[in-house]
Amino acid sequence: MSTIDLKSGSRLKLNSCLDLTVFEEIYPLNVLTGRALFKVRDNKTKLYYALKTYDLICNDSSEIENEILSLNGNDLGGVAPRCRAFSIDGNRGMLLMDWMEGKTLAQNYPFPPEDFYDFRERVRVLQSLCFAVDKVHSKKIFHRDLKPENIILPTK
User: Fold this and answer.
1) What is the dihedral of CA 148, 22, 68, 54, to 10 degrees?
2) Of the candidates 61, 147, 153, 155, which lies 20 to 30 Å from 132 by C-alpha distance?
3) Are 141 and 74 in contact (CB under 8 A)?
4) Phi, psi (5° rounding) for residue 132?
5) Rounded distance, CA 153 to CA 123, Å?
6) How many CB atoms neighbour CB 144 within 10 A?
7) What is the pLDDT of residues 96-147, one digit of tens each?
8) Rounded distance, CA 136 to CA 139, Å?
């Protein structure tokens, strides 16, 4: 497996026109999936993006490209990020996506409900999540790893 060695403050060029700085490691390289996720900032525009890196020994680049086409080719109403660039450098694929600001479902609700009102709020969140998943599924897009750590709830 190739090493993906990006740390906070690292700079990299993507597609020879994007100059990015790693702002934060969101999740480190998973040796089973060969994937990692970083929050990066474009040094020209100062905009934040998500940079998903793939070890191409573990991941097929054509599947990644199909994922990009699915996300960008459908109007998902803001429930999924747009993919902005994809680059291959040796055995590493790098996918630049819109940064979705917010906390994960797991971060928002780390403990069981405290009372009836907390429970009712969680049911509302779950209903919204079900509507979003239904919208994505209606476009024949399936996530394959839907879990509280992968669901971003927008900040209010």
Assistant:
1) -80
2) 61
3) yes
4) -65, -45
5) 14
6) 5
7) 999 999 999 999 999 999 999 999 999 999 999 999 999 889 888 888 788 8
8) 5
Six token digits for residue 117 = 């009102």
The tens digit of pLDDT for each residue in 107-121 reads 999 999 999 999 999
How far, in Å, CA of 62 to CA of 77, rounded?
25
Do 82 and 95 form a contact (C-beta atoms < 8 A)? no
- In contact, 149 and 104? CB cutoff 8 Å: yes
The DSSP bridge partners found for residue 53 are: 36, 94
pTM for this prediction: 0.79
The 3-state secondary structure of 33-94 reads CCEEEEEEEECCCCCEEEEEEEECCCCCHHHHHHHHHHHHCCCCCCCCCCEEEEEEECCEEE
